[in-house]
Every structure is written in structure tokens, then in C-alpha cells.
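pasting Integral membrane protein for the record, 223 residues
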Amino acid sequence: MPARLPDLRSRSLVYLTGCLVFSAGAACFIRADLGTDPLDVFALGLLRHVTATIGIAQALVAVVCIAVWALWNRRRPVVSPFVTFFLCGSLIDILRAVDAAGLLPVHRAVLMLIGVLLCTYGSALIIMSGLGIRAMDLVAITMTQRWKWPFWAAKGSLELVLLGSGWLMGGPVGLGTVCFLVFVDTLIQPCMRLTTRLFALRDYGLEAPAPARRGLEAPSWSA
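structre below
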């Protein structure tokens, strides 16, 4: 156990950095006001038909994704994605409260692109840490490992389903929505490879072996 502590500390640092970077990107993306991400399109579309909140709608998506992941891998459901959900949500609220994104004297379109890039890199760091990987990313990783799909195709297909169904329910779609779908999903894996090359960080998420279908030990990337 003592030998694993430094490893866990470094992974935790990568995870927390990823959450902060992702939250900063989300704050910029929201401040730009040029569209919502696919998950919000679905959540806002759903709210046109049921009485709930955006947080509850997003949590329902997470529950479904975790259930799919658990059944697919024959594992117990994990709760760590909700830690990331609430941590990033709280950081976004703080950054919006102080209007951190408003300190950047740039055009809305540039602010949106900054947000997209930060969300991309933050997502890459969270996945690489293998800690608190978000629910949809867990399913995308399983698709990558079981079906040998590239990560961008797996994640993109999931978000495309959310985007399409959300739009059909009346959710808003804008330029930012398209940019988020195209660039974030496409660039996460290259960012992970670049980070590994530049900083010699190990990838505990996407490059981790697929979990065995039987046994008691959960894979490290579901921690």
C-alpha cells in the first residue's frame, strides 16, 4: 500500500487539475452564449416535457450510462462519476459568480473556442487520472475497448444521440453546440497522447485494460 500512495497522489492531482480546467472551459463556454453542449440540449429539451431541473435531467443521463456500463462489464455500479459531477458543477458556479470568463477581453466566438479547448483538455486529464471518470466517458471507453472503436467515434455517437433526441424535444442547438460536439470529442484522445509524450504521465483511463467480465476487483478507471 505505501508504494501506491505516491501514485494515487499524482493521479489525484491530475484529476483535480482536470476538473478545474474543465470547469474553467465550461464557464467560458457558458459566458460566450453561442450554444449549449449536447448534454444540456437534451436536458433543456426534456424539461419542456417534464417538471425537473437541469441538474436532475443530467443526473438521470448519468444514472443510465452507469447502469449500461455496469451491466456491460458485469460490475457493481460506481458512484465516483457523481463526485466529478458535483465538483465540476460547484467550480463552474464559483467561476461564474466571480465572472472569471468576463476578465478575458475577447470576442464571444474566441471565448467559445477557448472554452472548447479547456473542456477538451480537462476531459483528457480526468480520463487519464482513472479517477471519477464521467459516466458517459465510461461507456465510451467500454465501446472503445470492446468494439475497438476510436474514442472520438464512441463518445461522438453517444453525444449525437443526446443532441438529436434533445433537439427533437425542443432543446436549443447553436454554433457552440456543433463546435463542442466536433472538437471536444475529436481532440480528447490526441490531447491525452500529447500529455503522455510531454509530461510522461501514464494513462489510467483509455489505455487501461478492459475489465474482466467476472471477478470482484473493479478496474482502476472506475475508481
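Confidence is low (pLDDT under 50) at residues 214-221.
Residues 11-208 form one domain.
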